[in-house]
Amino acid sequence: MTVSLELDHLRVVLVRTRNPLNIGAAARAMSNFGFHHLRVVNPYEVAFRQARSAVGASALLANAEVYGTVDEAVADCSLVVGTTAVRNRELHHQLRPIEYGARLMLKQLASGPVALLFGSEKAGLSNADLSHCHWLVRIPTREENISMNLGQAVAVCLYELVRDSQIKSTHLSEKAKSQKSRKSQGLDSHQSAPMVEVERITSVLFDVLRATRYWNPGAGAATEVKVRRLVRRLNIPVGDAEVWLGILRQILWKIRSGEKSLP
Amino acid sequence: MTVSLELDHLRVVLVRTRNPLNIGAAARAMSNFGFHHLRVVNPYEVAFRQARSAVGASALLANAEVYGTVDEAVADCSLVVGTTAVRNRELHHQLRPIEYGARLMLKQLASGPVALLFGSEKAGLSNADLSHCHWLVRIPTREENISMNLGQAVAVCLYELVRDSQIKSTHLSEKAKSQKSRKSQGLDSHQSAPMVEVERITSVLFDVLRATRYWNPGAGAATEVKVRRLVRRLNIPVGDAEVWLGILRQILWKIRSGEKSLP
């Protein structure tokens, strides 16, 4: 199997992983299935050091990137997918079976970076983590024992991506070709904007909501999480991101200039 | 999900496993995916004792059957399938991709016990072990790093069995059910908002763009058309339409109240 461009676009993001064996296991599964880019967010320091220095730890692990926040870890990705075992919690996100989710991810991987997030062994992804996700996938485990080992969950998700890409490999390369030609015609503006631009828009929107008193002065992190999700659900096209940012900045400027002139 | 008879017919057979963590991981994946019958052949004695006495070790592990030989461990099975990472060795067995192999196994599982064998971490299944197998399956790992962690290999194989059986039966009905209940709870909020709501949002946005002077006073129909398209490209979810409308109205109110107070 050669390294496919699609698979090379995946960023496996481990958030607050505590067990070094799980980081190592994730890296091994990535290597097995042809993925290269591991990102760890705020890992339990000792765990990460141990995993990196383990016998047989791969180049993949040595090259893993460490981030302080999920925000930074997904900045260059145009699609962010979270993993969860939970079904009954009031989810604010669409929850897709991994079989189907993998197919959607592969489509996006053909054109650019996609992040797949895995939470900590104990608590999974927090609501704040989830607020960075476009949607979630779940593995079909039983109600009676829903929660998978982290390394095994990573293996199953990556297998599903490879499984799909193999079955569809010819299909995809054809698709990539047609997208390439679309790109050369400058028609790729409908794809989702990368997260760094979406977060920029979100951040100006926060300022607007504060300036308009749509938010109470005391509005905290939970409110921000809600609006962050709201913005992600829009799937702002990359070709429109600058326009929306411009509109929001104009709004902010206007509100502030109005306030300055208050008696 | 109820225990399906098919899945209950599978015997997961670990041959000469050395690492207790791997025995535990195999048991956990079995429990996740609804399999109950673990058999261990000639395990490294200490490893098995450790795995069994581990905190959280399951009933599944306590009920695991220990055999001295592969022969005895597969005696009641009508189909015996081996797992291997190897591709180039002179195989005397048919080697099937796991996606296809799982489908054949499911057919057999409908009528009686099937064994799925996993070899030791270091050497896999020996030629003697393989001689008990009808055929072999392999997971599509890369040539460059072909060998999977045992616990992860078990997870992927069992996932593939469940994936197949679910797509064909329980899963489908579950999906239908969850969709039905989502609908009855009015949670289909991810669908795009109807055009009447989108146009309401668009119209308030027009007012905002005029009020902020983002638009020149003379801006005409062509400019409106552009922004109308811009809004439609967002595919605003029906569940979010009211929130966006509220935000825009608040912005408009704030700008106008600022203007009124101008000297």
Commentary on this structure:
The structure is a homodimer of 263-residue chains. Chain A has twelve helices and seven strands. By secondary structure, chain A is an alpha/beta fold. Chains A and B meet through helix 2, helix 8, helix 10 and helix 12 of A and helix 2, helix 8, helix 10 and helix 12 of B.
Quick summary of this structure?
The structure is a homodimer of 263-residue chains. Chain A has 263 residues and is α/β, with parallel strands linked by helices. Chain A is built from twelve helices and seven strands.
Task: Set down the secondary structure blueprint.
The structure is a homodimer of 263-residue chains.
Chain A (H helix, E strand, L loop, with lengths): L4 H4 L1 E6 L4 H14 L3 E5 L3 H9 L5 H4 L2 E3 L2 H4 L5 E5 L11 E3 H12 L4 E5 L8 H4 L4 E4 L11 H18 L1 H16 L10 H17 L9 H12 L8 H20 L3
Parallel strand pairs in A: 1-2, 1-6, 2-3, 4-6, 4-7, 5-7
